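Module 6 notes. Inverse folding takes a fixed backbone as the condition and produces residue identities as the prediction. Think of it as a translation problem where the source language is geometry and the target language is the twenty amino acids. Below is one complete input and output pair. Work through it position by position during the lab.
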């Protein structure tokens, strides 16, 4: 039982505490994935949500399945800062603070929500434990008080340090489905293989209006276990002509260098998106703007200058594809950062919305794209085949679409990779986050893509 002190008796202590700044929550990256959080000074009590409010409650092996699930969260890169963390519940909602109380709410994508749902980890009071400071209130800590979870001003007392320290333990509810390949909200994955590793370059999602300012990258040797390489390009400091709308990147390698094609807009309210190119000596960056200006300016062709993709043919010639509303292709110059504007061709197929992707198999060129709006559960992937990288194209139909019996919606903006030296192909794509996602809360997954004997693509079966 905690002893209550009178307000007067507590005053000298409170004044002395005011003088002490809260120690900086050193952004110790938490392991991502499903976890439970146990209060260090209340062994057996775990962070859980009950009626959308955070508490620390007893959980045992005999607890009802619902209690175990409510005491399990998935740790994902912080919605407001990828070096910190966010905590997602099984229903897709996030733990966030509001009025200094910890709550479980759906991500609205606003800057306020993303910050309120991002916590930076620092050392806890005992070895192996962590304390969690909101990214937007670094002098406060998540702590339990009368078994409720609050975000209180830091106090330099043993009691406060214990009340605000948690151990990350094995999850009470182990994940039963495969889930997204990288935890958290990401979309528009560009998958590629460079020097023995697979790389994934997605849009960072969860932002209202898809306003993310940066790109993160991941790599893997087996397409199952992915390593985060953090932010590889941040538009705000690194690109003079763009601050936000870091949408749908694509990376191509040539002559030992890596070229990241990206889109960006100015945060000034200008809704135009331009397409740029950044370069690095490493597939994991850091990438720097190669031109100091856009490669394709908004308005240079009908539709939006977004969703770049580069295909390099067997003769070494690379082609840049892009466009929303209209699909365009142009041969890139050898420098990979320029092209002859007179050589741009319009290749918009029927049903085309965005997200061009081109690859070649057995001498046939495949042109794939997304149809409908990414906010629509009917967002889907279709394709055409042709005899050259610029067509002419024959539409073959839709190959990837929602699977409602599994709760899979909005499957699109994909990319394709072949396991080197084989005829085994994989498709990376996004879907509405399962469950509770939508067109700005999307997640990335990878499935097999197979071909029929006549070279057409078999329907891709989206799996969880
Ligand atoms: O992620 C932002 C935009 O949504 C992409 O550029 C489009 O392809 C759509 O997925």
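Target side of the pair, the amino acids:
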């Amino acid at each position: 039982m905690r002893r209550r002190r009178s307000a007067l008796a507590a005053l000298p202590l409170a004044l002395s505490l005011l003088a002490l700044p809260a120690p900086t929550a050193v952004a110790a990256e938490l392991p991502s994935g499903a976890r439970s959080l146990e209060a260090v000074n209340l062994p057996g009590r775990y962070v859980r949500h009950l009626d959308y409010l955070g508490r620390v409650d007893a959980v045992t092996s005999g607890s009802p399945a619902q209690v175990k699930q409510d005491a399990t969260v998935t740790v994902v890169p912080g919605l407001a800062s990828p070096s910190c963390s966010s905590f997602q519940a099984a229903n897709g909602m996030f733990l966030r603070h509001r009025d200094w109380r910890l709550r479980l709410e759906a991500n609205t994508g606003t800057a306020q929500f993303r910050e309120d749902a991002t916590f930076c980890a620092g050392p806890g009071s005992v070895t192996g434990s962590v304390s969690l400071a909101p990214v937007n209130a670094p002098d406060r800590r998540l702590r339990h008080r009368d078994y409720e979870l609050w975000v209180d001003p830091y106090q330099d007392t043993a009691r406060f340090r214990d009340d605000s320290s948690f151990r990350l333990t094995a999850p009470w509810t182990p994940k039963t489905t495969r889930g997204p390949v990288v935890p958290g909200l990401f979309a528009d994955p560009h998958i590629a293989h460079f020097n023995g590793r697979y790389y994934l370059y997605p849009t960072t999602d969860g932002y209202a209006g898809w306003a993310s300012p940066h790109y993160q990258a991941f790599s893997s040797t087996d397409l199952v276990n992915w390593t985060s390489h953090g932010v590889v390009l941040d538009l705000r400091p690194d690109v003079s002509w763009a601050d936000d709308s870091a949408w749908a990147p694509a990376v191509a390698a040539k002559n030992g260098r890596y070229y990241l094609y990206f889109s960006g807009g100015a945060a000034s309210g200008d809704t135009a998106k331009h397409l740029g190119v950044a370069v690095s000596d490493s597939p994991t960056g850091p990438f720097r703007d190669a031109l100091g200006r856009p490669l394709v300016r908004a308005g240079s062709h009908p539709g939006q200058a977004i969703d770049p993709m580069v295909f390099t043919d067997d003769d070494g010639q690379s082609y840049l594809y892009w466009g929303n509303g209209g699909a365009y292709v142009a041969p890139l110059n050898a420098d990979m950062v320029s092209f002859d504007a007179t050589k741009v061709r319009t290749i918009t197929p029927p049903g085309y919305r965005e997200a061009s992707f081109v690859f070649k198999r057995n001498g046939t060129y495949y042109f794939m794209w997304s149809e409908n709006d990414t906010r629509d559960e009917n967002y889907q992937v279709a394709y055409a085949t042709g005899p050259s990288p610029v067509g002419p194209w024959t539409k073959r139909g839709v190959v990837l679409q929602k699977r409602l019996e599994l709760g899979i919606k909005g499957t699109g903006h994909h990319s394709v990779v072949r396991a080197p030296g084989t005829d085994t192909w994989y498709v990376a794509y996004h879907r509405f986050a399962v469950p509770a996602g939508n067109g700005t809360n999307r997640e990335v997954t990878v499935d097999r893509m197979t071909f029929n004997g006549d070279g057409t693509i078999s329907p891709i079966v989206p799996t969880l």
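Reference fact for the lab report: Residues 7-169 form a domain with the Trefoil (Acidic Fibroblast Growth Factor, subunit A) fold (CATH 2.80.10.50).
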